[in-house]
Amino acid sequence: MIYLDNSATTRPFDSVIEVTVRSMSEAYFNASAAYKPALDVEKEMRACRKAIAMEVGAAEDEVLFTSGGTEGDNLAILGVAQTLREKANFVCSEIEHPAVLETIRRVEKLGHEVRVMPIGPDGVVDLAACAELIDEKTAFVSCMQVSNETGAIQPVEEIARIARAKNADVIVHVDGVQGFMRVPMHMGKMGVDLYALSAHKIHGPKGVGALVVKKRVRLAAQMTGGGQEKNLRSGTYNSAGILALHAAVKEMAARRAEVAALGAMKAHLWQRLCGVAGVRVNGPMPGDAASAPHILSLSFDGVRGEVMRNALEGAGILVSTGSACASHKQKVSTSLRAMGLTQEQADGTIRVSLGLHNRMEEMDAAADQMIRMFALLSKYKRR
Ligand SMILES: Cc1ncc(COP(=O)(O)O)c(C=O)c1O
Questions:
Q1: Active site residue 325
Q2: pLDDT tens digits, one per residue of 333-358
Q3: Which of 64, 145, 241, 263 has its CA 20 to 30 A from that of 25?
């Protein structure tokens, strides 16, 4: 099997599995307890905070553990909305993941306004439109670091600068789930106040992640109870998950050069396909500065994405149509339509996403099968 759906989730590193087993069998203590074995767990969790903080240009005590990206986005958006005394507007891009889009709609019920930033045909937020939308009443701006559908790196630093020039108190949230440790982030230098990340996209386990919260941000807890995480996120620590997240962060850091080299694999795959009439890339071209190293959105003229995906699965290659959460519902990709693709082009799209278990030979094998399947399926295409 060739697994090319790493944006849906990644296979955990062996180091992650080992740490999980050790944590569950030996270091299972409640990290909030006062005896030494529990304090040791707490110490290891602190090391994880430190490692994450180093990666994103924040301080160790600004890292708050969550159950993953969805919870981080919810806590960021609702947590800020519930602290505001005056009615304000909330801004996000039109291609946000549902964890942001669905949640930001909920602030309307609190009386705030939601404004949506459009993207251009390249899948990148339109900064001129963004500057027009954001004003002195904008309390919160949310933008993903990397699009989960096209791999387009978003100009979050520029967006933060535009927002702060209009309102110095604005809170800038970045959904970093597809970007963390694959595209650089320095919250301090880039003017980012909140950053959500998820372990299972970097070869860690599912159900654990972090929201990095800069000190200037006031948040209302969404989960109340025992008061863990400075009262912001109650619940017994998922210490096995957190220690495994640390193992994933350490291994990703040790293999940074390989992460960067995913870009060459993606470029090679596209190189093999670009000469085929009727195949196109959606979003920035591989090699472009705005193209993340690991995600490639491809359209095959006249062949539906799910047909291509199923055909590739038959050949032992796993890809997805659009994003995983939307694909099983057969939902239309709003991102692709927002980029100006016709309905038919959007329907003819698959997403290939790479991880550190992939090899260059797999790109050749995938390209061979895509070319073969496209030729075969084109015979049956609608005219
Ligand atoms: C951009 C983006 N944000 C948020 C999420 C949700 O993260 P999690 O699965 O950790 O809840 C995903 C998952 O695919 C994502 O791609």
A1: yes
A2: 778 989 999 888 899 999 999 999 99
A3: 64
